[in-house]
Amino acid sequence: MKCSKAERLWEDWLGGSAPPELERHLAECPRCREQAQALQKTSAWLALLEQESPELSLSFWPRLWLQESEAQADFWAALAAVARPATAALSLALLLFLLALWGLPQGAEPATAVVGDPQPYWEEVAGADSPGNGEPNRDQVVLTLVSYSEASR
Amino acid sequence: MSDLRPNGARGKVGAHSEDEGEHAEREPQQPQRPERELIERAQQGDHQAFEVLLRRYQRRVLSLIARLLSRPAEVEDVAQQVFLKVYLALPRFDFRAAFSTWLYRVAVNECYDHLRRQRAQKSPGGSEIAVGELEELDRLAARPSRPADDPLRRLELRQTVEQLLRRLSPEDRVLLTLKEMEGFSTREIADLLKLKENTVKVRLFRVRKRLLEIHRRLRKREEGRGA
User: Fold this and answer.
1) What residues make up the domain containing A27?
2) A-chain residues within 8 Å CB-CB of B186?
3) Which residues of B touch A36 (CB under 8 A)?
4) The predicted structure's pLDDT at residue B138
5) Based on the structure, what is the number of domains in chain B?
6) Which residues constitute the domain of residue B175?
7) Is A94 domain-assigned?
8) Residue B33 in 3-state DSSP?
9) Is residue A26 part of a domain?
């Protein structure tokens, strides 16, 4: 076994349950033996610190419940402090939304083509006979407008 | 190497089961209420149920806090914070972990915070340690079964060890205290701190090495002063 592998075995060794491979390693590695003795020191030092468990004073529980009621009150106060501006902001947003709805133009027609509208004729004329630049010739335009006005009468 | 092998559970509080906390406070005349029932009642705001529940673990929690902080005057204040946090968070307790593990975790975290605050307020140096006590600690380790017979000397040594511990980081100190003084197993510490067991073992090894290094440096420094 390599010395580095012992790193995670020392706690087991200190607790008296090291695997046999560590014991074998300790028997042949003076550096790890020294390490083992040093680690034992830390356990011995901490053993000095054993002490009596402290007792709670008689006022412990009443003080706890007082603190609890204060904490609950603080919680609701904090919630109210957050809720008040949030409610105001929400109300304002709702009001603006309603105003926006109310202010929209009423009865606006959708932009659909109307029968008799000259625009399709114009586009048809312009697309068919223009010499490459998309512009209609003058005669065709006049003819189209005349036929449109007659049709709409 | 059997002469090096330690005694194992020397001076420890004992193995921990889920219900271990109540033994000291158990009243033989009254039948024990099931823990789950007490928790459920406390979750609904029953103060009395909470007190009965916490009294089962009170001694253990106080001992844990006292050892982690090593300042008796602060134990009750920190315990109050722990109990209050547990009470306020209890409605969210879902029984997936043992109540005791959850309670000790809250206590350990509160102690961490307390130690960190202390560390931030004060320099880590602390008061001076006499070189004689550092030497005595070395000798003590050679015969751990008979630490200083004189109670006054023992008290001085204890204060020296506390000074050494204060020079560790809060995390290191908590880890070592849980293992050596509170008698938690590495498995239990892993559950408590949400770590892998092997990580706990390796960290403990490194904390012990750091403690030894602190002792070595202090001893060297104090010997240098004395020369």
Assistant:
1) 3-47
2) 11
3) 1, 4
4) 74
5) 2
6) 126-227
7) no
8) coil
9) yes
What three-state secondary structure class fits A56? Answer: coil
Distance to chain B for A91, nearest Cα, Å: 33
Residue B8 lies in a domain: no
The answer to whether the beta carbons of residues B88 and B53 sit under 8 Å apart is no
Whichever domain contains B164, its CATH number is: 1.10.10.10
Question: Has residue B146 been placed in a domain?
Answer: yes
Q: Collect all residues of chain B within an 8 Å Cβ-Cβ radius of residue A48.
A: 140, 147, 154, 157-158, 161
Q: List chain B residues with CB under 8 Å of A8.
A: 198, 201-202, 205
**Residue A27 tokens, joined:** 């028997």
DSSP annotation of A113 reads: -
Residues B222 and B130 in one domain: yes
Residue A122 is encoded by which pair of tokens? 């114009």
Q: Which residues in chain B land under pLDDT 70?
A: 1-32, 122-131, 140-149, 226-227
Check whether residue B75 and residue B144 sit in a common domain. no
Mutate to test the interface with A, among B2, B3, B5 (most CBs of A within 10 A): B5
Residue of B nearest to A68 (CA): B84
Mark yes or no for CB contact A46/B161 under 8 Å: yes
Dihedral angle at the C-alpha atoms of B218, B221, B224, B226, nearest 10 degrees? -60
Q: What is the pLDDT of residues A113-143, one digit of tens each?
A: 555 555 555 555 555 554 555 556 677 777 7
The rounded distance, in Å, linking the Cα atoms of A64 and B77 is 10
- Which of residues B88, B122, B156 is at a domain's end? B122
Residue B24: per-residue pLDDT: 42
